[in-house]
Amino acid sequence: MNWYVAKLVFRVISGNGDHNAQFDEQLRLINAETEIQAYEKASIIGHANQDSFLNVQKQTVKWQFIDVAELNAISGLADGTELYYNIHEAENPDLYIAWAHHKSALLGAKN
What we know:
Number of helices: 2
Shape: globular
Helix content: 25-40%
Strand content: 35-45%
Radius of gyration: 18 Å
Order of helices and strands: EEHEEH
Distance between the termini: 35 Å
Structural class: alpha+beta
């Protein structure tokens, strides 16, 4: 069996959808023999995790599965293994660095 990281994309629609489009990107760890099986398994997980519920304003909120957007093989599971990467371009690098430090501080505050 091989390990893969799959990015599942869901659209989040609140009420009648009169809001900026929202998408939830989830990274899921998949164990499969082949890349095709991993894709199929990820797609099944995505469809199974579609949901709808009422929010506090009594509006229906739908999580609609869009697709498996990425699938990356992992060579081996070990401490520090890279699971995913994304190169982000920022107009203001200082603002991006400050954001990263802020997010890290929030994680540190939880411990």
